[in-house]
Amino acid sequence: MFRLESVGAGQVKLVGRLDAAQADAASEEFAQLQGPIVADYSELEYISSGGIAVIMVTYKRLHAAGHALRLSALTPRVRNVFVYAGLAPLLGIE
Question: 94 pLDDT exceeds 70?
Answer without folding.
Answer: no
